[in-house]
Design brief:
The protein is of the alpha/beta class. The chain has two domains: 44 residues, no CATH class; 250 residues, 2-enoyl-CoA Hydratase, Chain A, domain 1, CATH 3.90.226.10. Helices cover 50% and strands 16% of the residues. The protein is built from 14 helices and eight strands. Strands 1, 2, 3, 4, 5, 6, 7 and 8 form an eight-stranded mixed beta sheet that branches. β2 and β3 form a beta hairpin. α4 crosses α13 and α8 runs parallel beside α9. The radius of gyration is 21 Å and the shape is globular. The N and C termini lie far apart (50 Å).
Length: 319
């Protein structure tokens, strides 16, 4: 188990419980079961207390937890007959964005998402989920395919932001993200999006301009990272805690502001503690969102999607 900074008290309790179990195995018949179970109960109470009142910065840490299920995990668990489609037909295949044709509850769909990787090798290969222009152009190609064959589109967002490197800028990073966002608004099929970890800046919006947007309970969605915001406003990245509060980047804040449509409850302690439970919850939310959109004509889907984003930030202004 990888423990976050604020989970240190929990780490000590769970560590002692594991020590007792290890001693029982090698201690010549010592029965330490009751002591270990008492520590387990204490750990569960501590976990509930910790996660009952997380700050915005702590939720950022949970959203970035290396053990959280990533896009690939969701695709493997929720979709069948997944066939990956690679490349943007212009430059290269960006491994930070994965996507293809699959079946969701036996319904043909197109699924697209950011993939961060789960170890050093795959994280480097996936560029830590930071897509280059060819990644967004691949997404555009897949959305065009979905529109042509009337397939719903499901996107899974988990990125610190689009890759800001020199090569990406030379190949038109801003234009690629803008065109991906434009394509999201233009397709005449249901488009649902789930922020499963980090939703960073335009890199997230390029895949999340959807009819329905959901977020996992401890995921975050923001125009900039707290560290980046702190560096700009205070010239001090260590002010990230204050920046996280000011950015209103939590699922709870964003639902109040009308930016997202639903919050998907996570297992106690976050998706990293019970990945299967979290993945199942996301699957049920996707099913519900697709059901809400089923039967709608292409013109209605496009109109409702555009109106949804045009109205953001205007509620309550008349009063």
């Amino acid at each position: 188990m990888n423990y976050l900074e604020f989970e240190k008290p929990l780490a000590e309790i769970e560590g002692k419980a594991e020590e007792l179990r290890a001693m029982a195995k090698t201690g010549g018949g010592m029965d330490l079961t009751k002591e270990a179970e008492a520590l387990d109960r204490k750990a569960e109470t501590a976990l509930r207390e910790l996660y009952k009142g997380l700050t915005a910065w702590q939720k950022c840490q949970v959203a970035r937890h290396p053990d959280r299920p990533h896009c690939k995990d969701y695709v493997e668990a929720l979709f069948t007959e997944y066939t990956a489609l690679a490349g943007d037909r212009a430059f290269a295949d960006d491994h930070a964005v994965m996507g293809g044709i699959a079946r969701f509850n036996d319904q043909p769909v197109v699924v697209i998402g950011h993939e961060k990787g789960n170890d050093t090798k795959t994280r480097i290969e996936r560029n830590f989920g930071m897509a280059r222009p060819e990644g967004y152009r691949k997404a555009i190609r897949l959305m065009d395919l979905a529109d042509r064959f009337r397939l719903p589109v499901i996107t899974l967002v988990d990125t610190p932001g689009a890759y800001p490197g020199k090569g990406a800028e030379e190949r038109g990073q801003a234009e690629a993200i803008a065109r991906s966002t434009e394509k999201c608004l233009a397709i005449g099929v249901p488009l649902v999006s789930v922020v499963i970890g980090e939703g960073g800046s335009g890199g997230a919006v390029g895949l999340a301009t959807a009819n329905r947007v959901a977020m996992l309970e401890f995921s975050v969605y923001s125009v900039i990272s707290p560290e980046g915001c702190a560096s700009i406003l205070w010239k001090d990245a260590e002010k990230m805690r204050e920046a996280a509060e000011a950015l209103r980047l939590t699922a709870q804040d964003l639902q109040k502001l009308g930016i997202i449509d639903r919050i998907i409850k996570e297992p106690m302690g976050g998706a990293q503690r019970a990945p299967k439970e979290a993945i199942d919850a996301v699957g049920k939310a996707i099913e519900a969102m697709l059901k809400e959109l089923s039967g709608k004509k292409p013109e209605a889907l496009i109109r409702d999607r555009r109106q949804k984003f045009l109205e953001m930030g205007t509620k309550g202004l008349a009063a």
